[in-house]
Amino acid sequence: MIKSLPLSEVYRLLEPGPVVLVATADKNKNNVMTMSWHTMMEFEPPLIGCVISGRNHTFDTLLKTKECVIGIPTAKMIDKVVKIGNCSGRDTDKFKKIGLTPLPASRVKAPLVKECYANIECKISDANLVGKYNFFILKAVKAWIDPKAKNPKIIHHGGKGNFTISDKAVKIASKMK
């Protein structure tokens, strides 16, 4: 039998991708937040859409600086990822408190996160939907990956403290006729 699901929980059914970290920098003060509401919008150039609450410190910094780094953590970082999401960068140096290593990026002032297996330097491409929906469209301008990371386990958020860890990479070969 099926039952009604509150509309406030629909997001739990449609989480589009891995939990990521969004790093920003303003006046040499680095910050990082946990984010799971994002989606790829275009392949070339890579465009990434994301929702960042106007209540988050990162929202203000991203609007001001117009750039960030999206770091993709592995499942080994899940405790750090949750801690990052449970404190504010307004009054906390999250890199120091959580034990993350900021590395210089090449195209933006925001730092790469050394502990992430991949980092994507981004600049705001379109902010037209920010005022109404807190929706940023970011353009990837440089990407980095740890070549030793082969099919890393990544984290997906299911809402209400529930996470899924990707466990197995599957390659399906299809033949078009």
CATH superfamily membership: Electron Transport, Fmn-binding Protein, Chain A
CATH domain fold name: Pnp Oxidase, Chain A
CATH class: Mainly Beta
**What is the H/E order?**
HEEEEHEHHEEEHEEE
Distance between the termini: 41 Å
Structural class: alpha+beta
Radius of gyration: 17 Å
The number of strands is 11
Number of domains: 1
Percentage beta strand: 35-45%
Mean pLDDT, nearest integer? 91
List keywords for this structure.
Pnp Oxidase, Chain A, globular, alpha+beta, 36% strand, 17% helix
Descriptive report:
The chain has 177 residues and is of the alpha+beta class. The protein has one domain: Pnp Oxidase, Chain A (Roll). It is 17% helix and 36% strand. The protein contains 5 helices and 11 strands; from the N terminus they run H-E-E-E-E-H-E-H-H-E-E-E-H-E-E-E. The chain has helices spanning 11-14, 57-65, 78-85, 94-98, 130-133, and strands at 20-26, 29-35, 38-42, 47-51, 67-72, 102-103, 112-113, 118-126, 135-145, 155-159, 162-165. A hairpin with a 4-residue loop joins strand 3 (38-42) and strand 4 (47-51). The model has no long low-confidence stretch (mean pLDDT 91).
